Structure formats: structure tokens, C-alpha cells
Amino acid sequence: MSIRILVVDDETSVTDLISYNLRKAHYDVLTAHDGEAALQIARESSPDLILLDLMLPKIDGLDVCRELRKTSQVPVIMITARGEETDRVIGLELGADDYVCKPFSMRELLARIKAVLRRNQSPSGELAGSAILSGPHGLRLDEDSRTATLGGTPLSLTRLEFDLIQYLTLNAGRVLSREQLLSQAWGYDFVGGTRAVDSAIKRLRAKIRAFSPEADIIETVRGIGYRLIK
């Protein structure tokens, strides 16, 4: 079955160019030119990946990403202008998987797409297993089903968030650098930088505290990285 990609940009010339090259690479392509249409198509067609421009009419890209993450873990690559660093950080915090800056080459974009799809289709071999992992405050991770619960309550985690909490749990009590977490969860082909780790940890903490406000189980070690308390 072909991989389906939704391209969202308000410039027809951009969507046409990207669509042409994606089809040449044997992807199925859907397009949308505003945020409202993007959400509708995403819900109706269940794409395997979304290329999402941030500057969109009706609903901007950040709000589209925010809405998507309420019900879907579809991989999202943001398309941003070079001066939109703040928006890129917010997008990563909202759950985007990667970003590409305009102007970009199609070779770069195709490489990012392949990397994100690869990371989302299967977990890293170092993280794979078949055990039930236990952590503080009743945290339990099922490595076969890749599901997590906290005190018996299911946690809705993205593939990336599960890989992070899994690696932290496997190394509970040890300080892990941002670079270690980046290479384990994102892979060495991710070029977004260690700030993506901080954004993902922030999302993880928010999800955990939503069920158990006192469950501050991920500790920040200033200047180094993070540690899961024992």
C-alpha cells in the first residue's frame, strides 16, 4: 500500500511542486490550502504523514498541529520561514516531529520525510523488547503493545514520547544527556537539535501531571539533561 502524504500550504505553486516530486517518489499525495481544509482532509483520509506550513489562512499551522494532536499521532513535518524560530519551538512542543525551513531543496525534504517515516514505522532496535517496565508513581510500560499507564490510567503517548519514557525508565536513576536522548528517540538523522528533547520532555511531563499532579518523575539536571527518579 502506498504511503499517503498530505501537503498543506496556501501557495498553489508550492503544493504543486512538492506534489509533483512526491508522486515521482511513489507517494500518494493529498493537498490543502488552508488550515480548515487540512483538518477535514486529515480526519477523513488518515494520511501517513503531513507536511504543514505554519502561515495558513482560516486556521494557522500551529493551531492545526494542536488540533491534530488531540486525536491523532500522525507524523507532522512543519514548513517554516527561517526567521520563525519561536514558532518552530512551539510546533515541536505541540508534537511536530520535525521541521524544514524555506527555501528548501526537494532532496532535503524527501530525506526528512523518509527519516520521519522510518522513525515512526518501527522503534529503534535498542529500544525494542518484550518486558513490562515499571517506574515511580505506578508507571508501567508494555514494550510489546507500546502502551503506558500511570497508576492504572492509560497515557496517550506519541511514538516519540513512548521511546523517551522507555529509555528513561530503562536507565532510571541515571542522568541522560540531551544528545543521548536525541540519538535514541529521534535517531542520528534528525537535525532539529537538542531543543526538540526539551520540548518532548515538556509534553511528557504535562501528560503525566494531568493524571497525577504530584508525579514529578522526570528530573532536570541543569547543564546535562534528564533523569527518571527511582
How many helix segments? 8
Overall number of domains: 2
Stretches where pLDDT is under 50 for at least 5 consecutive residues are 123-129
Strand segment count: 12
Strand order of the largest sheet: 2-1-3-4-5
CATH superfamily of the largest domain: Response regulator
> Whole-number average pLDDT?
86
Q: How does the overall form come out from the CA principal axes?
A: elongated
**Which structural class should the secondary elements be placed in?**
alpha/beta
Determine the CATH topology of the largest domain.
Rossmann fold
Q: Note the beta-strand portion.
A: 15-25%
First-last Cα distance: 44 Å
Short summary:
The chain has helices at residues 12-24, 35-45, 61-71, 85-94, 106-121, 159-170, 178-185, 195-211; strands at residues 4-8, 28-32, 49-53, 76-81, 98-102, 132-134, 139-142, 147-150, 153-155, 176-177, 218-221, 225-228.
Q: Helix and strand layout, with pairings?
A:
Blueprint: E1 4-8, H1 12-24, E2 28-32, H2 35-45, E3 49-53, H3 61-71, E4 76-81, H4 85-94, E5 98-102, H5 106-121, E6 132-134, E7 139-142, E8 147-150, E9 153-155, H6 159-170, E10 176-177, H7 178-185, H8 195-211, E11 218-221, E12 225-228
Helix pairs in contact: 2-3, 3-4, 4-8, 6-8
